Amino acid sequence: MNILMFSWEYPPRIIGGISRVVYHLSRGLSEQGHNVTVITSVEGEEEFYLSGNERIYCVSSYYVKPINFINGVLQMNFSMFEKAVEIIRNGEMFDVIHLHDWLVAFAGKGMERVYPIRQVCTIHSTEYGRNAGIHNEIQSFINNVEKKMVHGIKHVIVNSMYMKNEVNTLFDRTEDNIHVIPNGIEPEKLNLIPKDMDFRKKYAADNEKIVFFIGRLVNEKGVHVLMDAVPIILSRYRDVRFIIAGSGPERDTLEKKAIENGVADRVHFTGYINDEELCKMYKCVDIAVFPSLYEPFGIVALEAMVANLPVVVSEAGGFNEIVTNRFNGMKFRTGRSDLLADCIIELMTSPDLVIDITKNAWNTINEKYKWSAIVEKTHAVYELAKQDTQ
Predict the structure, then answer these.
(1) pLDDT tens, 65-120?
(2) Backbone angles phi, psi at 184, to 5 degrees
(3) CA angle, corner 84, sides to 83 and 87, nearest 5?
(4) SS3 of 331, please?
(5) Of 333, 340, 328, which is closest to residue 304 (Cα–Cα)?
(6) For 124-137, what is each residue's pLDDT tens digit?
(7) How far apart are CA 59 and CA 148, in angstroms?
(8) Do strands 267-271 and 287-290 pair parallel, antiparallel, or not at all (unpaired)?
(9) Where does the chain show beta strands of DSSP type E?
């Protein structure tokens, strides 16, 4: 099958979770013999990569400096549409087009008007969910684009039952042809990464535990909930440090909260870390915590499980489907710092529980979240879309 994907991010440009999903999906499809073309965006000069059956076109978005975020997205879509037309005019034709989120909806709409190619879209999250409602004109615009997208494309992919219900309820979209396909992980991802004790010593003494968060520093990720749990934890278990990895608009607010809570000396904000640093981090920390208020899927939980770490997650969204409490992780009621603190303290003081949880988490990964199975399910949706043309 010849497959065209549109995504606003693709490694090494990583803004959120879409980048890694598109990377593994396109690579997995190409390894199974399909021809995959990805059109994505880049800051600066256009780039092109060829790897086996996979072709990556990174288009430059901005002919002029955009007036605002929406203007920049529209310029990016225009550039993507131009590139797709150029590829087709050079003799390539596609069986299916896969759009990833609203950010590429306009390129998809342009392709629909010009070429009789069936489309599939993945809704990775919604503007309503990310912001706990629609509060301004920009959010309303994005919400309306998402609604048009899911009503205009027959086959919609979401990554959890939570997201299926959200799309169904929020956009009044019937459940017909909304396909639940989870995101995945490579179980062997960290096998060859050694534990670097010198790296660990930069953050904690040998006798200290490390509690770790990785993600965008935005309100929906709930890092403020962890910040309020830190003094509770330290009042009952002193030998522990907290590492907050990632960047985002809430960093200053979170650092101020750590100071106000009197725990700034125990919390280290790393800022953005690359994949190499992240792998090192996963190998040297003790507990991974993801206290999201909104989480469509929760691939970070899978990454921590692969690293043989016990995870503590909120009950938000997709986390609730990945983690079974006290079986393959710990769950707490979303937003409750006191209950989050209880989970972390129990893990730090119950080594047998940690052993059981990490063993069961590894089994969960192998049973449900291998990319090979996810690629097969996605290809099956493409086949359904192709049949609609007949």
Answers:
(1) 888 999 999 999 999 999 999 999 999 999 999 999 999 999 999 999 999 999 99
(2) -130, -175
(3) 85
(4) strand
(5) 328
(6) 999 999 888 999 99
(7) 25
(8) unpaired
(9) 2-6, 35-42, 47-51, 54-60, 96-100, 118-122, 155-158, 178-180, 209-214, 240-245, 267-271, 287-290, 311-314, 330-332
Closest to 356 measured CA to CA, from 317, 329, 333 = 329
Distance CA 338, CA 284 (A): 26
Fold of the CATH domain 197-368 = Rossmann fold (3.40.50)
Question: Phi and psi (nearest 5°) for 228?
Answer: -75, -20
CB of 73 closer than 8 Å to CB of 56 = no
Measured CA to CA, the distance from residue 13 to residue 385 in angstroms comes to 29
Beta bridge partners of 240: 209
Q: Residue 312: beta bridge partners? A: 289, 330
Kindly write down the DSSP assignment for every residue of 270-293, as one continuous string.
EE---HHHHHHHHHH-SEEEE--S
Domains 2-184+370-387 and 197-368 share a fold: yes
Q: Please enumerate in sequence order all residues whose Cβ is within 8 A of that of 10, keeping only pairs 6 or more positions apart, or say none.
A: 19, 22, 23, 38, 40, 56, 58
The span from the CA of 28 to the CA of 36, in Å, is: 10
Phi-psi region of 206 (alpha: psi -120 to 50; beta: other; left: phi over 0): alpha
d(CA 92, CA 85): 10
The fold adopted by the segment(s) 2-184+370-387 is Rossmann fold (3.40.50)
* Domain boundaries of the chain, sorted by first residue: 2-184+370-387, 197-368
Instruction: Give 63's contacts (C-beta < 8 A, 6+ positions apart).
Output: 75
Q: Is the full-model pTM beyond 0.85? A: no
- Enter the DSSP assignment of 324: P
Q: How far apart are CA 236 and CA 257, in angstroms?
A: 20
Among 286, 131, 284, 287, smallest CA distance to 221 is for 131
Closest CA to 40 of 2, 67, 66, 79: 79
DSSP, collapsed to helix, strand or coil, labels residue 153 as coil
Cβ count near 68 (within 10 Å): 8
